[in-house]
Amino acid sequence: MRSTARNLPLHDRGPARAWLGQLARSTGPALAPMLLLGALILGGALGMALVVAALPLTVASAVGRPILSRGGPRDSLTGLGDRASLTMALDRMLHRTAGGRSVAAMAIEIDAFKQLEQRHDRAAVEQVLRIVGERLQDGLRGDDALSRLDGPCFGIALVSDHKLDLDSVIQLGQRLQQAVSDPIEIGEAQVYATVSVGFALALRLQQPGGTELLQAATLALIEAQRRGAATIRSYSRAMQHRISTRNNLCDEISAALDRGDLTAYYQPQVSIRDGRITGVEALARWHHPDRGLIPPAEFLPVIEQAGLMGRLGEIMVQDGLNALRLWDAAGLSVPQVAVNFSQSELADPKLIDRLAWELDRFDLSPDRLVIEVLETVVAHRLEDVVVRNLSGLAGLGCRLDLDDFGTGHAAITSIRRFSIQRIKIDRSFVSRIDTDPEQQKMVSAILTMADRLGIETLAEGVETQAEREMLARLGCGHVQGFGIARPMPRPETEAWLRSFEAQPRRAV
Prior knowledge:
It is built from 21 helices and 16 strands. It is an alpha/beta fold. The strands form 3 sheets. It has an 8-stranded mixed barrel with strand order 8-9-11-12-13-14-15-16, surrounded by 5 helices. The longest helix is centred in the middle third of the chain and has 23 residues.
């Protein structure tokens, strides 16, 4: 049975092994001992026949159980091996193979496990863990080793008769994801679980050992989880460098916020119809003392990881409102400043009171502060603190912009429910709109919808005059992007505003 499975390609071994595991769990543990007992009592030819009948069930039961259960520490819940057992299995595999060409480690974690724990009791959660472990085991071959590392995280040691490559391991990961995705019956309810997967090929490590290989797979898992649920990522040295850089920045970010190294840059927003300034967006920028200006795509995940998005939001609001007050005093017309708010910030029960206090402190009316919310935050959202805060901010008089529209599947009912006053069309729809008829159709449909709902529109990422002209022809209200102006520090923004206002007023 095992030799047959070993000869199957990596992506073809799942169904046969799954059937074998189910047979072992359903009949083997109970029926095989009874057959063997009958053989001892009866003896002779009949006893031999019973032994022959029991043998397949005994083998199936052994194959169907976790491979590491034969020795070493075991997890009491699932019967699988632990982290130490998996590390030893990887070490043995690496020792048996030349340079680890056919060895890999895989780390798998159940997505949204905290929400699962909040919705179900302990017995139900433990049942999910056991079933996920069984399904993962059923998808592996006899020479592979499965362990439960901790919580909702499992680890797999993979070995093959041939060289393991990216494609074959990705196919295995996808097959395991598919196996886990079937509904899990918990009483009268059904649970749908997904898993994220990270893996590391021994060939990609300079000096692979069991511990190092599992650590690399875990790093790949973390990167997969950063991309969203049910994602698969492979370890690489470039990934290691990115993670090391991010960890270093994480150690520095709190002090950088306190020192004022993170400040707001401002990007103007302009009316297409008459060319006037309709506002600015405050965008976070980090001036690192050694590295200079660090891209937002690099430091924003670090701030989120450190749990400091609220602190950054406070800085953006304070800088933005202060800039409006200074521009008012200088006689410059900037109607409003837009600030991005993350989901964690919008979940702060004290958000409305804090923003009302800031507006009062800077002596500005609420309509001069625009709350930018990602479409993914409001899409299909039920009643919670975020919903109450958005409704409260609209009631206070703040304007609400729906950011990156077209990427998050927000329903029209959500747009009306949250009193959205303007949608920002994502740059992916704006790029090459002057030459791409499909882009024109998509944006035209968005603009028609917004017009029927009485909602303003702003196109992000506008870079060329041709794009501006096409957006004007389609009926877009406002534009923002490098084609108008790049994000600038406040003093440079003030100089740009003076220069812009000195020019004859014209449509963009």
